[in-house]
Amino acid sequence: MTFPRAARDSLELAVAQGVVPGAAAALADRDGPGPLMVCGVRRQGGPAVTPDTRYDLASLTKVMATLPCVLRLVADGALGLDDRLEPYFSHAGWFQSPSLADATVRQLLAHAAGVEPWSPLFARVSTRATALAAVLQARVEAPGTVRYSDLGFMLLGALVERVTKRRLDAFAREAVFEPLGMHHTGFGPVRDAPVAATEDCGWRNRLLEGEVHDENASVWDGVAGHAGLFGTAADVATYASAWLRLDPRLGPEWLLREASALHAEDDAGVRRGLGWLLAHPGVFAGDAARGYGHTGFTGTSLWIDPEGGTASVLLTNRVHPHRSRGHGITALRGSFHGLVHAVAA
Fold first, then answer.
1. Is 40 within a domain?
2. How many domains, the chain?
């Protein structure tokens, strides 16, 4: 297992051209994480990226923390995929029709509950409790409507906390990260390890280094179901390897296969499993991609190809020093993941 020369070149060129300040990439197979490469800097004018550099994983949080936590609860019989929200949050969607109360765990995981995609919670509330109260009144379209929704995964994170009586970061560490040996992955803030900077945030009036980039996650104290996780490329590869071999520490084989099976498809042909984005024409890993993966707004991405037995990880901080740069991340993802898995195929 090696990086194709063309994939290495595409990443180094993106750094040289300023598409991203720096990057860490890794490969994995069923035996575990494999080769790692780093290039560029952690912040403009700052130190070089090193293998132990942690990146703000953004929406990879959905599939690396919230999804496996939910699956663990399902495997243990503490939660059902077709459970409705109402028994856990009796005031969900109060006085609304259709109501959030009727959304199921399965629908929320597949972004098929019709929940509105996003809301500027950070502009209206300032605590985890009020953020949850606001999300519990989120608008819902017709049940079954496929809409990629941060709010839906905020609810799932809150559901994990409701069932376990523990905060999401503590349960994810105990149920997922520690069993898999992911010792450099966790929710922020990151204070004791090298970390890639994200945005010079005008709202918070500081450069974000080790502090979650996502504004709504910030009012959840940096621990939310949709964002907030930090990790290294090697740890993300460790996680991907566990999915490649259907590691029982993530759950029984039937449940892991269920997560990567088709559960929803929108009008544009975007196909979704439980949490995972499935291969389809136009997917970020290339039209020829097989398998499933996910991306994060900060410039992160993960692709898993069970048929080929390989996975690829790309971590960047394309939002540094501001989110208006890094528009080439789509092309970079396509070339990097596509080149890796084309060779693997």
1. yes
2. 2
